[in-house]
Amino acid sequence: MATVEKPKAGLEDTVATSSAICYLDGDRGVLAYCGYDIHDLAQKATFEEVCYLLWHRRLPTRAELGDLQSQLAAARPLPEAILRLMKTLPAGNGMDLLRTLTSALGHYDPDAADQSPQANDRKAVRLTAQIGSLVATLGRMNAGGGPIAPDPVLGHAANFLYMLTGERPGGLQTRAFDVALILHADHELNASTFAARVAAATLTDIHSTIVGAIGALKGPLHGGANADVMKLLLEVGADASPDKAEEVVRAKLARKEKIPGFGHRVYHTEDPRATHLRQMSKDLGQRAGQPGWFAMSQRIEQLVKTEKKLYANVDFYSASTYYVLGIAVDLFTPIFAVSRISGWTAHVLEQYANNRLIRPRAEYVGPEYPQRYIPVEAR
Ligand SMILES: CC(C)(COP(=O)(O)OP(=O)(O)OC[C@H]1O[C@@H](n2cnc3c(N)ncnc32)[C@H](O)[C@@H]1OP(=O)(O)O)[C@@H](O)C(=O)NCCC(=O)NCCS
């Protein structure tokens, strides 16, 4: 067999494709979508503008943005059959439900049989709207409520919170959630996006690529970490002191356990998304009269930085941010998908536009070749 050059484990530092969507500099802590720094976008943009940017590689004009907002609003209502299916599925992990329901959406998509670039653009918009509706409705049903019809007047973030809670959110909550969506929208070749691109490279349909991405996002090393962070904080206790949090995490480190929400394959400095989420966690916690989660989180952050030289990643402070917004822990990772669907679809469309099958090689480390076949009766 010809020698195959082997990359580092986990494809670390391997450049696997070219992409015009996301710029990452892990040493300087830079994240930019199509050249626009994440700090600028977090301060000034809306999630809808970011969707347009990721899909079209430029910011929309006012008319283009209005058009996209209308398309998203029109695509929000879930097909009746999906609502019926939601009621029949057994209650369970939110990501499992989201995976199944996203797959089911493919059956009812009006462009299901059309793989043209125009149809795929429409499907990207539709999926972005529908995944928001799915996750909000899942949250509603988990809490024992019935589905709430979307409000076409509201923006994406406000409509999500409205469909989740049944109440029109205030400006501060809406902006906080909008910023969280902006921060999670894309992150280059993260595991779920890579999974989506590998699937897209076979020229399968867009729903299939997104189902694969949702499966990858669920894992605790990826999007599942935000729920694990909150479980850790809850394990420490709602009224616990930062000292108690330090004690619990110190014991975990001594047992060589990984602390969710820390470390990153690409960043060797502060994750620029964590900068915003830390501030949001602090501000929203104070306003909600629950400053304890932030205080505990901050102490854990200091400890893990001192002991392990690891920085907080996007998942660490998003946990306490969502919690004080009143969102159930089981929805944290599905909410990651509500945002990342924009990046996933942008990457899938980019892959379709300039495709070659992704088919790497493996270093063979099995039994020596050739082995002599021994019939079963002689083994
Ligand atoms: C994100 C992550 C998967 C990156 O993984 P990676 O680049 O493969 O790094 P590794 O898992 O090989 O970790 C390298 C070293 O740091 C340690 N480490 C990494 N993340 C750690 C964490 N969160 N807590 C404690 N130790 C950690 C590992 O134990 C390992 O130590 P060792 O060399 O003594 O064995 C990893 O940091 C992690 O599991 N973090 C927790 C889950 C999480 O927050 N995921 C969301 C990422 S946005």
Rg over CA atoms, rounded to whole Å, is 22 Å
Q: Estimate nothing, just give the exact number of structural domains.
A: 2
Query: Level of helix content?
Result: 55-70%
Approximate shape? globular
For this structure, what is the CATH homologous superfamily of the largest domain? Citrate Synthase, domain 1
Tell me the structural class. Answer: mainly alpha
CATH class of the largest domain, anyone?
Mainly Alpha
Number of helices: 16
Query: Which spans have pLDDT < 50 for at least 5 consecutive residues?
Result: none
Sheet bearing the most strands, described? 3 strands, antiparallel
What's the CATH topology name of the largest domain?
Citrate Synthase, domain 1
Share in β-strands = under 5%
Bound molecules: coenzyme A
Q: Averaged pLDDT, please?
A: 96
Q: How do the SSEs run, as a string of H and E?
A: EEEHHHHHHHHHHHHHHHH
Q: Gap between N and C termini, in Å? A: 29 Å
The overall strand count is: 3
CATH architecture of the largest domain: Orthogonal Bundle
How do the strands line up in the largest sheet?
A: 1-2-3
Short summary of the structure?
The chain is built from 16 helices and three strands. The chain has helices at 38-44, 47-56, 62-75, 80-88, 94-108, 117-142, 156-165, 171-184, 191-200, 206-217, 225-236, 242-254, 272-287, 292-308, 314-324, 332-353, and strands at residues 22-25, 30-33, 36-37. The protein has a three-stranded antiparallel β-sheet.
